[in-house]
Amino acid sequence: MAAPAPILRMTGIGKQFPGVRALDGVDFRLMPGEVHALMGENGAGKSTLIKVLTGVYGIDAGEIELAGEKVAFSGPLAAQRAGISTVYQEVNLCANLSVAENIFIGREPRRLGRIHWKEMRRRAAALLAGLDLDIDVSAPLSAYSLAVQQMVAIARAVDVEARVLILDEPTSSLDADEVAQLFRVMRRLKEQGIAILFVSHFLDQIYEIADRMTILRNGALVGEYHISELSQVELVAKMIGREIVELERLEGKPPAPSGGPLIEAEGLGRPGAIEPFSLTIREGEVTGLAGLLGSGRTELARLLFGADHAGSGSLRIKGAPASLRTPRAAIAHGVAFCSENRRAEGLIPDLSVRENLVLAMQARRGWTRPIPRRTQDELVAKYVEALGIRPADPEIPIRNLSGGNQQKVLLARWLILEPRLLILDEPTRGIDVGAKAEIQRLVAELSDGGMAVLYVSAELEEVLRLSHKVEVLRDRRLVAELPNDEALTTDALMEAIAKGGRS
Amino acid sequence: MSALLRHRLVWPAAVLAGLLLVNVIFTDGFLSVQIRDGHLYGSLIDILRFGAPLILVALGMTLVIATGGIDLSVGSVVAISGALACLQISGLGDQGSVGGVLAAVAVALALSLALGVWNGLLVSAIGIQPIIATLILMVAGRGLAQLITDGQIITVNSAPYKLIGGGYWLTLPFGIIIVAAVLTLTAFLTRRLALGLLIEAVGGNAEASRLAGIRSRGVLIMVYTFAGLCAGIAGLMISSNVSSADGNNAGLWIELDAILAVVIGGTSLSGGRFSLAGTVLGALIIQTLTTTIYSIGVPPETTLLFKALVVTIVCLLQSQAFRAKVFRRRAAPPAGRPAAEEKKVGVPA
After folding, report:
1. Which site among A353, A356, A367 would you substitute to test the B interface, given the most B Cβ atoms closer than 10 Å to its Cβ?
2. Residue B47: φ, ψ to 5°
3. Which residues on B lie below 8 Å from A371 (Cβ)?
4. DSSP structural state of residue B192
5. Best of B63, B65, B195, B211 to disrupt the A interface by mutation (most A CBs within 10 Å)?
6. CA-nearest residue of chain B to A373?
7. Which Pfam families does this chain map to (chain B) (predicted)?
8. Residue A306 needs a FRET pair 20 to 30 A away by CA distance; which of A64, A193, A466, B345 works?
């Protein structure tokens, strides 16, 4: 490809947050008709660069040129008018509005000054049909899965005559088919000359779809590369700035667990969420939970934590019957649950990193027994250090942290309780390779120390690498329990998920 | 942390200072505080004394608002508490008996507590939206107060009761001492103990708090009960000051002043972070404003309009977006600097 004039050029971009230097002299360019991957660890400044570009934040230094003209957008709307549309990592739509309303919000088709509802629904349906999505556009968005919501967000972004389309981790909640579908759409858009800025933590996806990439590290530019110039290993090394040994360190099957049964679920179920299942988790055992999106993975985990009421069945913890009617009761029994939906079910955005970290422990102690400030500071310092939480200032609000660092804080919230069973629901979703390896190593260490872990993940390699046994879910039913021996491969696991039986 | 806190309170403090300055200009000897008959006298003392009930109600309101709720019923609780106490005292053989007054006070406060629990149960156990749940008691409570007073104004003549809202102790008006005690207790419970953290967590993200093991139902009942108690004490103060109970007008619209004080003090109506010091400043601003209206001789028929204007200005000054716009445009360095700093702090990631 001969180098055409870039549609977008950012030079010397600098951005400072209180206590954090988010971007420092970053250059970035985007050609028409290319898919350009923006790579970097969590906290490297990817999201900040995108938000600076779309006018969510002002810039402290540098300038932005769109099609040769210097621009400074006052907000996402202004950026959108100029042809830069964004789909964020977490779906930013109104769940209570209909699909069609979400697509056309702010620019509804009008007739005689009033909204032309019929036209709106027709155009929304046509637009989604272009993305191979056949859904009822007048139904509220909340009626659909996260994946469908994501597609709706993309449909909305595409429809506004975009010259630049920014996709910030659009694939993190999609399954393989949906990703393929998204890539088809992306290629079509590319042919139309739209420049696509793509952020994803899935390296395979980057290599499948992207033409070029720009790598950031700690808010600074590492370099701009053609996708063919750089192997995956080189890419990861450039992202984390050191040789990757962490990923190799976990090779080999984990040792078999020795402890007795910790949790025994007998016919536990909840109508409409998951059919009755029986499951035993031993001490020191990592149990993987595999299945497609919507197969009931999260629902099963929530029952074991008492986040939802079980409609049937019983539960024994260490042989004694236990009723987990609330999360509080589960915590008292030594069960901890790290939710996949960290924004809605994990973070208290306004509170500081320290307060978020000690929250569960304080809740367990009750409000009359405050954790002494010195103990808090020690705990926080220990886990900030151990998990590599950045920035290391525990007093800034947690909303100022990047997604992966927020996830580490939430993980630390549960680790300080020293639970007997730790339920991790997609703990590595949307976080970078380095942190992912850290979390996986942590899980292995914890289980060696006798802690039982229920590990829910859509990435089969990850489940296989960590688990002693894998529970397979399909259509809200627990269909198989597979010991993780030599015979179990990702292919075998996929077959079990697909066929719903033993391979 | 302390730097941030200082930052948040800069604007309410500036507004209060400005209002006091206006008074200094219009009123001779406004700042002078004298000791007469062993009691402290002066305009500043009056502001504190007359502002005491509002500060109390606003303190309770702060915690409720921090959980993301609101309590509209405090005005009615003020009326009920005063009415019940006065009814009992008026029935005493000897209205000056300390024991009888204490019993009356205890019964009135117990009922206020119970009404707070009622609100808390409606909100947390039944799950009614706070504004609706407390609206029930706001309306029904007025009726209850009138029922207690039989639609009349009950007057009492009791020296011990008069002490609460109109008396002095250790040269200070007794009301100020009560406020100081309640403020200290609240600060202790929320900041020294962990209640504040749990309240802010529930207000910041209720579902995440539940999953972290916080018994949010208990926290909610507690804050509404506390708001009820504060309103009850304020009701005793107000009725004691005038030695009478008026079921119709006691504490009328005080809930709105209290909400305003909380908001001026920098606590967001959507819940989460709260500031007790900010609330006290907010309540003092409102009370000083009332005093100012009288002292600079605003015609009575325009007082409400005047008050509304000042409150609008205060709210605009508090708004980061507004300050950023106005001050940046003028590019006045002394005013523009703090506005810009404040803006950075508020940037979400």
Report:
1. A367
2. -60, -45
3. 194
4. I
5. B211
6. B192
7. BPD_transp_2 (PF02653)
8. A466
| Residue among A360, A370, A400 whose CB faces B212 most closely | A360
CATH number for the domain including A276? 3.40.50.300
Q: Which string of DSSP letters, residue by residue, matches A251-264?
A: -SPPPPP-S-EEEE
Q: Pull the structure tokens for residue B230.
A: 């504060």
Residue A118: count other Cβ atoms within 10 Å of its Cβ.
10
A192 and A327, same domain (yes or no):
no
Domain residue ranges of chain B, discontinuous segments joined by +: 53-318
Q: Which domain holds residue A319?
A: 262-334+420-431+450-503
Q: Is the pLDDT of residue A370 over 60?
A: yes
pLDDT at A330 over 90: yes
* A314 and A356 together in one domain: no
**Last residue in a domain, options A249, A281, A296:** A249
- pLDDT at residue B206 above 50? yes
How large is the ipTM?
0.82
Q: What is the pLDDT of residues A120-159, one digit of tens each?
A: 999 999 888 877 778 888 999 888 877 778 778 888 887 7
A367 to chain B: nearest residue by CA? B194
Q: Which residues of B touch A (CB under 8 A)?
A: 1, 192-195, 197-198, 200-201, 204-205, 207-215, 219, 272-273, 344-345, 347-349
Q: pLDDT over 90 for what percent of chain B?
A: 58
Reading the block at residue A299, the tokens are: 């629902």
In this predicted structure, the answer to whether residue B6 has a pLDDT above a threshold of 60 is no
Interface contact B204-A351, CB threshold 8 A: yes
The verdict on A35 and A84 lying in the same domain is yes
Position B339 confidence tier, pLDDT thresholds 50, 70, 90: very low
Neighbours of B223 (CB within 10 A): 30
**Is the CB of residue A416 less than 8 Å from the CB of residue A446?**
no
Q: Are A329 and A354 in the same domain?
A: no
pLDDT tier, A90 (very low <50, low <70, confident <90, very high otherwise): low
Residues of A in contact with B1 (CB under 8 A): 395
In eight-state DSSP terms, residue A4 is: P
Partner residues linked to A279 by β-bridges: A265
How close B239 comes to chain A (CA, Å)? 34
pLDDT of residue A182: 81
Q: Is B144 strand, coil or helix?
A: helix
Q: Domain check: are A54 and A133 in the same one? A: yes
Residue A239's pLDDT is 77
User: Which of B1, B195, B201 shows the shortest C-beta gap to A359?
Assistant: B201
Among the partner residues B193, B211, B272, nearest to A367 by beta-carbon distance: B193
CATH 1.10.8 fits B53-318, yes or no: no
Tell me whether residue A192 is in a domain: yes
Q: Rg of the Cα trace of chain B? A: 21
